[in-house]
Amino acid sequence: MSRRLLLCTVLALSLLPSGPRSAKADSNSPSWQGPETLGQITEPQINEASGLAHSYSESGLLWTNNDSGNAPVLYAVDAQGRHRGSVRIEGATNRDWEDVASYQIDGRAYLIAADVGDNSATYPECVLYVIAEPDPAELSPSHELFAKPERIIRYVYPDGPRDCESLAVDTTERAIYVISKRTKPPVAYRLPLFPENSGAPLRAETVGPVNGIAEPSGLISRMSVPWGKWRAQVCSLDISRDGLRAAVLTYGEVYLYERREGEDWASAFARGGQQLAAHNLPQAEGLCFSPDGQEIYVTTEGLPAPLLRYRLSQETGQSASGATP
Fold first, then answer.
1. Partners of 151 in beta bridges
2. Domains along the chain?
3. Phi then psi for 270, rounded to 5 degrees?
């Protein structure tokens, strides 16, 4: 980034609101603090961090990925952004990996590399690579691990190709969720986590609109940068391990969607979410929950890449219903 562009970025970001705003939030909305900077990703190999997932095998271990045209590799970092190691997915292609998700089923931890990016909405199908999460004890910055996919899930959208940069797993439903990036409003889609092996690409199920994401206005809406005119585009997604909260990352903010008792995600997304304080990152593309669902980590493309954290306030967290550790 040039010095002049960096100066313009800093000045423009200083004009952005620093506190939470939400047309949908009410007195019952949980209180989230932050963001605070935990550290920075400085590993040269991780220069386009486009996704983020928390390990199911080690607390404080995060997985990330580079996007289009890079190696089919997932990278591990700690909560301060320090490089821990990497795993290459054998036989995979990184056409445009835009997110990574983690989940656990029957005591086994897994990662999904999401080859779902499609800027021009022209690719006939999307591909998800599912691997067993590597043993953290085997990770090392000095050598790369290798993993064969346990499953490869191919899918198409019911209404034609879509650009997407987000993917999450709801283990309570055994389902995968993605959200379109460039449609207004964004649209959520659902896939089975364990599809029948028919050989043909799956057809994603339309869940419905993701409402409540604020479009930019004024000077910001005229600036041709991610946090400017494209501020409302969705670029990452995660669902808490108890299946009660979804965090949606845009280039400008983080939004929290909560399911009420007996409610599905279609209703929760349609109702709108709680907007947290602006993250003020130049091109935020990675987000995930902590294991207990009471923290949210966010990072950006580029180097160095700040690693941020939002935290549920202690009073709210104590009264929140059943997040599993």
1. 130
2. 3-319 (2.120.10)
3. -70, -35
Q: Are 33 and 311 in contact (CB under 8 A)?
A: yes
Q: What's the length of the chain?
A: 325
Distances (CA, A) of 183 to 51, 122, 164: 20, 15, 10
Q: Are 278 and 18 in contact (CB under 8 A)?
A: yes
Q: How far lies 33's CA from each of 48, 253, 254, 296, 316, in Å? A: 27, 13, 12, 10, 11
What pLDDT, on the 0 to 100 scale, is given for residue 23?
A: 39
Identify the pLDDT of residue 316.
58
Contact 254, 296 (CB under 8 A): yes
pLDDT one-digit tens code per residue, 277-289: 999 999 999 999 9
Closest among 89, 86, 175, 84 to 131, alpha carbons compared: 89
DSSP category for residue 220 = G
Cite the beta strand spans of 45-82 per DSSP E: 49-54, 61-66, 73-78
> How far is Cα 114 from Cα 97, in angstroms, rounded to an integer?
5
Contact 116, 167 (CB under 8 A): yes
